[in-house]
Write a structure and sequence with these properties.
This is Alpha/beta hydrolase family. By secondary structure, the protein is α/β, with parallel strands linked by helices. The protein is built from eight helices and four strands. The protein has a single domain (9-200), classed as Alpha/Beta hydrolase fold, catalytic domain (Rossmann fold), CATH 3.40.50. It has a four-stranded parallel sheet, with helices on both faces. Helix 3 (72-80) links the parallel strand 1 (66-70) and strand 2 (88-92). The radius of gyration is 16 Å and the shape is globular.
Amino acid sequence: MIHGGSKDREAGLKYRHLMASLGFGTTAFDCIGHGETGGELSHSSLIGRTEQARAVAEHLGSQLTGCMGVSMGAYNALQLSKSVPLRSLILMVPGVYHPSAYQVNFGPEFSAIIRQPCSWAESDAWQIVADFSGNILIISAAEDRVIPEAIPQRLYDSASGKGKQALLTVADADHNSVWQMLQRNPALYDKTCRLLVECLTEA
């Protein structure tokens, strides 16, 4: 599991417990500049986060079959799929970025790139998801004010269709309240669990 740009691995703990209850083990880590890993965020970047995730993946070896990325972490999960054989991707409130932002350290230059109007529209994420042959589950928040609403749908539309794919929109949820809204809606919670199992189970 890869956390978002302003979080750490603790943010995904509820989902890790959920995955365990569904029969799936998980691994999470703090990217450089977050949580217990330490370091300076300004010394990291999107590509740095992907390389950190790849190091964890290489340590896990064949045990690793899927990746869940949240917000910025979803873009890292997509990038990871280019070099690590994954059968499943779970992209939650997914952020995607212009390729020119990928190797730039976090800071003013990075912010200037991603704040360009609709810079995300020229992301390489669309091609990456089109090239991915595994299962994909995209979870979006209906009231997200951080991620443009067009991104989850375009990711879904760009998917290759070679594996199972699903787009789940969580009603009344904003960027940071997907879990809370799932807890208030038992039917939607059950549907989410079913989609997670389908995505993480080999076709």
